[in-house]
Amino acid sequence: MRRALVIFAAWMAAAAAGLLLKNDYFASVATAMAFLALWAQSWNLLCGLTGNISLGHSVFVAVAAYVTVILFQQAGVSPLLGGLLGILGSVVLASIVGAATLRLRGPYFTLATLSAAAVVLSLILHYSQLTGGPSGLAITFAQDSPFDLEFTNVRAYFLIATGLLAAVTLFLDFLKRSKLGFYIAAIKSSEEAAAAAGIRVALVKVIVFCLSAALTALGGVVYVFYIGFMDPNFLSGLTLSVEIALIAVVGGMDYLIGPIIGAIFYEAIDVAANATFGASGGWDVMLLGFAVVVMVMTEPRGLCELTIRLLRLIHRRPARFWS
Amino acid sequence: MTALLEIKGIAKSFGAVRSLVDITFSVEDHSIVGLIGPNGAGKSTLINILTGVYAPDGGNVQFAGRNLGRIATAERARLGLVRTFQRPTPILDLSCIEGVMVGGLARGLSVGKARNAALDILTSLGLREAADQSPRKLPTGHLKLLDFARVLMLAPRLVLLDELMAGLSFSELEVVLGAIERLADRGASFLVVEHLLDVIKRLSRRLVVMDAGIIVAAGEPTEVIRDPRVIEAYLGDEAGAVLVEAEPAPVSSPLALSSEELISTPFKSAGTGPMLEVNDLVTGYDGIEVLHGVDLIVKEGETVCILGANGAGKSTILRAVMRQLPCWRGRVSFLGEDITNVKAFAPAHVGIGYVPEGRGMLASLSVRENLEMGAHPGGARAAFARNLERVLSLFPALVSRLGDAAANLSGGQQQMLAIGRALMGSPKLVLLDEPSLGLAPQIVSHVYGALTELKSSGQAILLVEQTVGKALALSDRAYVVDGGKVVLTGPSDNVRSDKLLRDAYLGL
């Protein structure tokens, strides 16, 4: 209950800060940050909790976004309903990939997620009549239409994204204390021992993967209306997938707040690099890469762990609230 | 009426190695059956087949009248066929009680009910205080109790105990035996794989002996262990000691090794000056202090053992000397040189060899490559050929296995390899952490025979051990550690004859 209140208060604070931001550029940075944090949090549900690393998580953003937008534009289906179908599509994809590869040990799952994203990308590019192919689809609107997820003020998307982030964070906090949460922890520690304790290991892993895909897709549905344009190479590309993973890793996979800290760190470096060197030239990517390397060398368990270590230097007492 | 568990003609090969040739026996309902055999006999393989981890090449297993076929491990556990593991398997990210609860959740208990049941079980095993702690900080013995607690939560019909009791202290052993007997009274059956014959004799009225993938004997325990085939395959020169329950037998070497060979080696050192000096050592894990100021000395050519219950801090002393843990306070010096804050690789280079608990095999490398890795420090490479010859004469069993992957060795051979690897670095002092853990009596004798040879060659040894009798017989001096402090030290003979001490700390 205390944690729920803290999470709710944090959301209200973030929302207030977002609404007070007069500068549209910083409002868009904050919104991007919220979506990245949401995806990283969803990614961490699978990868941080079970230890199975996905490097194709953006595919769930892509599937949900395309299903929603195509249904909306071609058949007039409301994005609220279309979004549900899009999320369902992501879950179906996750269950197929998961059922095939999560029972194997080794890098197969990671490779399968990489290839799933590549396959979906080629399908999008191939069926260009439906998807717009490489040039993508534009979503244009001139006035607010909440039930179509259309808002002219970007701050509305910031509110929704941070709200979803708060909800997902709350859900994960609840999950960790649930039966499924205990099963996940057992599986991460030792699959053999988990099975010996009567846990259906493969089934639990597939369920967790589907949950993670659904939450990622949920963000995708809102995101595409915020950004107003479907770029297949971004939505189902490697860059976004790797960003999502890096953010969670840098922030700290063992902590509920890790992916959020990671997203803030990530966007902060991005903004600083663009302000110093200009948006072209790829300085932001280079700096980010450098920051990640330094981060992993000083504290492989992420910024949260680093912070706790620093606090411990001062207090000599471990802070465990967010674990 | 058929038996609870019927094993018929089970066979299993891994590549060209026939691990199980033809195993047939049964476990009746409401019974406790012991299963013994030398390391490498196939006992763990059999348990893995019974629990569905491996599929057998031939034969079948029936449980409660049902052919198990290809039923998955989790489903077998839900049927009541459960196991423990040789190495403890704590759930690291959960508290102890949550890790135990998992077993109850899987059979349908709610989180609240599982918590209550888990608390009862932890209390009965004497672990109530650890309930909300992380298992990361617990010693191996407690982790094994936790595994056992998780098994109890599953409301089992048949429990396969894979060396659960190896490495437990005397009092922990009593607790586990009591729990097993209570559960047996309520109708559960057990298959107990163990090297501790006293335990098996106390618990079971039927003993099955395995060797090289077949059953060599089965029947009433006291009769079975008199069977000459069993003595030859398993007990070796321990037989006499075990049967008459005498004082620990003096260590004899099964190996013929001439003393000239040993004297000509670089291990030989003379004199009685202090070699390793540990002063007021304080260290711990994750901010929890484990050692509260330990003083310890090993002189040149001396063999010293560290004894004490699980969790006393014995292994922690060795880990601190090897710089695997930072020293929070105090000083460690070796041959007059301060090594308190050197890099983690440095102790090996100044001449300290280390055989960690669990052996630390480089599993995918061959035996020879493992030995080569040990020859890394300083001048050891120059002495490679001589050291190799020495190690192989100490452990002839390794000669024919040089090309095999270390992972394919039996537990006893792995322990020999681990010691051999430490010796390949021409160490002036060897630290050994529980070299007898999980080994059959005959193999323990082999290992201790080799240690005796090493000692007589002048090799200085610092030994941490649970097998108190053997360690005291081997060593010149002993330290008894309790609660992170040295509570007593003296010549090993005095320690052995001190009745009070034995009762209080060693449970001999």
Describe this protein with a few key phrases.
heterodimer; A: 323 residues; mainly alpha; two-stranded antiparallel sheet; 15 helices; 1% strand; B: 508 residues; alpha/beta; Rossmann fold; 2 domains; six-stranded mixed beta sheet; 36% helix; globular
Write up what this structure looks like.
The complex is a heterodimer of chains A (323) and B (508). With 323 residues, chain A is mainly alpha-helical. Chain A has one domain. Chain A is 76% helix and 1% strand. Chain A has helices spanning 2-20, 24-50, 58-75, 79-101, 108-126, 128-131, 154-176, 179-189, 191-196, 201-227, 232-235, 238-251, 258-277, 283-298, 303-315; strands spanning 137-138, 229-230. The longest helix of chain A has 27 residues, at 24-50. Chain B has 508 residues and is an alpha/beta fold. Chain B folds into 2 domains: 5-244, Rossmann fold (3-Layer(aba) Sandwich); 272-351 and 429-441 and 460-508, Rossmann fold. Helices cover 36% and strands 24% of the residues of chain B. The two termini of chain B are 43 Å apart. At the A-B interface, helix 8 and helix 9 of A face helix 2, helix 3 and helix 5 of B.
Helix-strand blueprint:
The complex is a heterodimer of chains A (323) and B (508).
Chain A: H1 2-20, H2 24-50, H3 58-75, H4 79-101, H5 108-126, H6 128-131, E1 137-138, H7 154-176, H8 179-189, H9 191-196, H10 201-227, E2 229-230, H11 232-235, H12 238-251, H13 258-277, H14 283-298, H15 303-315
Antiparallel strand pairs in A: 1-2
Helix pairs in contact in A: 1-7, 2-7, 2-10, 2-12, 2-13, 3-4, 3-5, 3-10, 4-10, 7-10, 8-10, 12-13, 13-14
Chain B: E1 5-14, E2 17-27, E3 32-36, H1 43-50, E4 58-63, E5 66-67, H2 73-79, E6 81-83, H3 96-106, H4 111-124, H5 140-153, E7 158-162, H6 170-185, E8 189-193, H7 197-203, E9 206-211, E10 214-219, H8 221-224, H9 228-235, H10 239-244, H11 259-263, E11 274-285, E12 288-299, E13 303-307, H12 314-321, E14 329-334, E15 337-338, H13 346-350, E16 352-355, H14 367-374, H15 384-394, H16 411-423, E17 429-433, H17 441-456, E18 460-464, H18 468-474, E19 477-482, E20 485-491, H19 492-497, H20 499-506
Parallel strand pairs in B: 3-8, 3-9, 6-7, 7-8, 13-18, 13-19, 16-17, 17-18
Antiparallel strand pairs in B: 1-2, 1-4, 4-5, 9-10, 11-12, 11-14, 14-15, 19-20
Helix pairs in contact in B: 3-4, 3-5, 4-5, 14-16
